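Fold in tokens:
===
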Amino acid sequence: MIREVLRMGDERLLRRAVEVGRFGTPELFALLQDMRDTMAHLNGAGLAAPQIGVGLRVVIFGVTANPRYPDAGEVPDTVLINPTLEPLSDETEEAWEGCLSVPGMRGWVPRWSRLRYAGFDEQGRRFERSVAGFHARVVQHECDHLDGILYPMRIRDLTKFGFNEALFPGQDLPQEE
């Protein structure tokens, strides 16, 4: 089922989500299906449970031949529950981001260039990956939602934050999460 995505200003987006305690449940599978349906409907690269009003530490993400991300490297479809992130260096990079909870806008956001993330799938199996580039950016963006952080809170230079049509008149839009 396609769910309503909360927008910036809704206080539920500012709360820290709680850890999932039980895996493999019908409720968790239903939540994940709703998240997949909602993300696909909006051509998103990822979605966090708090964005649809569910305060659990659950994110999904993945990019393959998405028209909104024509230059992005492929990111495997992933369910990531109770995640932890660890930067693999102090190196950061800045790039344009958008968000389904901040529609019609973009901002220039710093993120770790390389990181290791770990967590659980829907069955409770632990896994970890070391990633870089767009994949690392997507994971950080989605996991920020679990701690009540929206990408505008990370922007250092507010002259690089605004409405898509004002920032990029007549241009194809840059990648967004």
